[in-house]
Amino acid sequence: MTHDLQQILIDNAASLERIARRYAGPNDWQDLLQEITVNLWRGLDRFEGRSALSTWVYRVAVNTALSHVRKKPLPVLAGSGELAEKRPTAIHPGDQLAVLEQFLESLDPVNRAVLLLDLEGLHRDEVADVLGLSPGAVAVRMTRLKERFTREFLEAA
């Protein structure tokens, strides 16, 4: 079965851009998006149809993004040599998008992927397939993420 890369990119453009923006800084998300596109192109002939095409696209995108994160050096505080910590900044509780952005930024790459894929509307089984986790592990991670969000962003407000 032959798949058209251009149509795949059109069908998944918004999701791929969201993934790239979440795993790369504002100045290099387009580079990550290009890397995702190249990896989709390289792997397309190996897609065997054992999962839905959209699941495979997410898998390639997320794995590329996770590799991108692993290759990037950790941020360093100017002059201190210590790792920079992301500290919560004051956000108006009514700005739901800013609250979500801050929460996503506070997550490790795998938990960020779990939450992003959930927000994309993937079922837990699909999230598990994309990330190579069991559905139970995805459910546990989502429960912990919800508890953490409630504790850090709802109870603290």
How far is the first residue's CA from the last residue's CA?
52 Å
Total strands: the figure is: 0
Helix content: 55-70%
Largest β-sheet summary: none
Quaternary structure annotation: single chain
Poorly predicted tracts of residues: 74-88
Cα-based radius of gyration, to the nearest Å: 17 Å
The chain-level structural class is mainly alpha
- Proportion of residues in β-strands: under 5%
Mean pLDDT: 85
Total count of helical runs of at least 4 residues = 8
Instruction: Spell out the helices and strands N to C.
Output: HHHHHHHH
Key structural traits:
single chain, 157 residues, mainly alpha, 0% strand, globular
Structure commentary:
With 157 residues, the chain is an all-alpha fold. Helix content is 65%, strand content 0%. It contains 8 helices and no strands. The protein has helices at residues 5-11, 13-23, 29-43, 53-71, 96-106, 109-119, 124-131, 135-154. Helix 2 runs parallel beside helix 4 (53-71), helix 3 (29-43) crosses helix 4 (53-71) and helix 4 runs antiparallel to helix 6. The longest helix is centred in the C-terminal third of the chain and has 20 residues, at 135-154. It is globular, with a radius of gyration of 17 Å. The chain starts with a helix and ends with a helix. The model is unreliable at 74-88 (pLDDT under 50).
